[in-house]
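Same chain as my last thread, 99 residues:
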Amino acid sequence: KQKRTFTPADGEKWLADTFCCQLVPHQASPHAVEAIRRVLGFSVENYHVGIQGLGNLASASIPVMLDRLRKSDRLNPGQDILLLGTSAGYSQAALCFQL
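reply #2:
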């Protein structure tokens, strides 16, 4: 893919619209998870969350959701997936890959 430089102001919308179509976030707090979805501009259909039924799984939340999505056939080969990790304080990590 072609590299593109963007500012934080337009970066979130560009991310949601053109780069990664499926997002699996770290799921520690239902309020934080929803706030992140709104800020990044992801639709509910492309933002995969299970905290309501599973609770806070800490560091296992992303692998558990990936496994649930895989078993339910909601992820297809060739899809771009963004994993978004957060932690206490201000630390973040993201990984985008193609399934």
